[in-house]
Structure formats: C-alpha cells, structure tokens
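Page 42, continued from yesterday. The earlier attempt failed because a stray header line got pasted into the input along with the sequence. Redoing it now with the clean sequence only.
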Amino acid sequence: MRTCLPRPLWPMPPRSKSVARHSLVAGLILGALVGCAAPPPPFVPIRHDGVRIAHCFDGVPHQPGAKPWVLGGTCCCTPTEETLKLWQRDGFFTGMGMDEVLAQYDERGIKTALDHRHCNNQCEFGPHVTRGGHCMAPPTPGTRNYEEIVTGRVAGQPTATAPATPGTGG
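This time it went through. Structure tokens are written below.
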C-alpha cells in the first residue's frame, strides 16, 4: 500500500518556478511594508448638526467648564499637567498639584490612560467609568462604545436619554 502522494508525471516548467518564486518575494516585501497596524487616529465627527458631547476625554475636545469625573462631573480627560491647568482655570483642583490629583483617582480605583491604553474599556478594570466601571482609558474611535460614551446615548434607547451620571464605580 502506498502512503505517499505520487510524484508528478512531468517536472514543473522553469517559467512556473520563476513565477512562483517572484510571487513569494512580492508577498514577503508586501508583508514587510504593511507591518503592524498603528493605533486609530483621534475622533473627528463627520457632521456637527446637534451632536452634544456628554463626556469629554482624550481625542474629544475638552469641554470648557466640564467638572472632572473624580469630582462627580462629566470630564473623563486623562489627568495631565495640561488638563490640570484647564481644570484649574475652570475652578477645579485649585491649589493642588498633579500628585494630589492623581491620588484622588487612585483612591477611587480609577485606571486612566496613564495606566493603560487601547482596551476600548474591555479590560479587567472595565467597563468605562461612565458605565460604573473603573476604566477611564479613552474608548476606541468608530466603535459603538465610543459613540455611546461621547454622546451619553445608549444604543437601543430613545435619543432623549440623559447622559450617564458619574458613579463611584462598581
């Protein structure tokens, strides 16, 4: 009984070998050029007709006057020196330094983009803080999660839904 595949009755013509070799080389070059995908670019809304930003965060413009999430507001921007200046301009965290602000997030168990990124709030700290979780990393643009957090509207609910209210986490 024969267990191996039979040998072809005729050898492969030299031209076919050349085409196969060139196809392999072209595939390897294309694979090297494509490489790994980069993180998605910041969100840019297609239309601005009445879209109200319910929660600002990295990649969505900070809303002037928005209270930081850790103080019971709607601003989910990552606490950085630049963001702290914006908050202090609006009257929040006055007289406090970055270490004190970060300590407030740590006390509540909130994980920011300083701790991790690119999880779309599906990590061990999720869901997003606006949904009762401990993850405050910005959601991935173009996903339903992103749209729901930006607008405060949950898919399948009427558009008159109020924005999510801050919680202490679940």
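Notes: Residues 159-165 have pLDDT under 50 and may be disordered.
Reminder to self: strip header lines before submitting.
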